[in-house]
Amino acid sequence: MPTASEPVDVLVPRAARIGPSAGLRIHHGKFDPGDALDRAGLRVTSPARTCWDLAQWLDVVETVVVLDSMLARRLTDVPTLREYALSRAGRRGWRSLLRAVDLADAGAESPQESRTRVRLVLAGLPRPETQWVVADKGRFVARLDLAWPQFKVAVEYDGLWHDDPEQFHRDRQRLNRLLGCGWIVLHVTAKRLRDDFDGFVAEVRAALRARSCSPR
After folding, report:
1. Share of the chain above pLDDT 70, in %
2. Residue 112's closest CA among 148, 145, 153?
3. Residue 175's pLDDT band (boundaries 50, 70, 90)?
4. Residue 16 CA to chain centroid, in angstroms?
5. What is the pLDDT of residue 131?
6. Burial of 78 (0-12, 13-18, 19+ CB in 10 A)
7. Is 142 in the same domain as 183?
8. How many domains does the chain have?
9. What is the pLDDT of residue 171?
10. Boundary of a domain, candidates 55, 85, 103
11. Interior/surface letters 173-184, b for 16+ CB within 10 angstroms, e for the rest
């Protein structure tokens, strides 16, 4: 979600003569029937049109971050977005939206999880499952951010909550139980996402390769 200091993106018809305005980022475009809705007296773009615009204004990773959130909140769904893109085939932006939709996943529970997943896939790794539940003899063990269950390899995003000693203690108990079930769990932080993502990709790839070549 944008912060109070970030500008608000506004879409206006191409013919509208609106210049730069403080706090606003003005975009001009063509509106199709159904693209604009009335919400409590405020004119807004439909969820599908909003996703279409984001696919043109943002890179694919950040577009998917927003699409994941919208899908999770059930503001739209994959078939609707795919149909919207395909119905506009040939127009600027339709392939960008289709690509983002194909990468989107309603299971993501945070923007950083979405960024991690999409960047791993774009790096050539198999698409992981989101929020994968691990059970042992019918008993719940853990729910994993990203997982390749056929290899028992998982990726967890470590956020700032790990500064909490109690949470850290519970997390390590959970990790021990996962290891006891034969899982390899790799952890990624904001710093690694920012400064050493290639190194992290190599670690995940090595874990998947090791598991795909060895019996479990």
Report:
1. 84
2. 145
3. confident
4. 34
5. 96
6. middle
7. yes
8. 2
9. 79
10. 103
11. ebeebbeeeebb
Q: pLDDT tens digits for 72-110?
A: 999 999 999 999 999 999 998 899 999 999 999 999 999
130-139 long-range contacts (CB < 8 A, ≥24 apart) are 130/105, 131/107, 134/178, 134/181, 134/183, 136/177, 136/180, 136/181
**Span 186-201, pLDDT tens digits:** 999 999 999 999 999 9
pLDDT recorded at residue 20 = 61
Q: What is the pLDDT of residue 123?
A: 97
Tokens of 204: 């995940």
Residue 214 burial (C-beta neighbours within 10 Å; 0-12, 13-18, 19+): exposed
Contacts by 206-214, CB closer than 8 A, 24 or more apart: 207/151, 207/153, 208/125, 208/126, 208/148, 208/151, 208/153, 211/148, 211/151, 211/152, 211/153, 211/184, 212/151
**Domain-ending residue, one of 103, 138, 155:** 103
Contact in structure between 116 and 133 (CB atoms under 8 Å) = no
CA torsion angle for 206, 209, 213, 214 (degrees, to 10)? 50
Scan for tokens 């019918």, then name that residue. 138
Same structural domain, 85 and 125? no
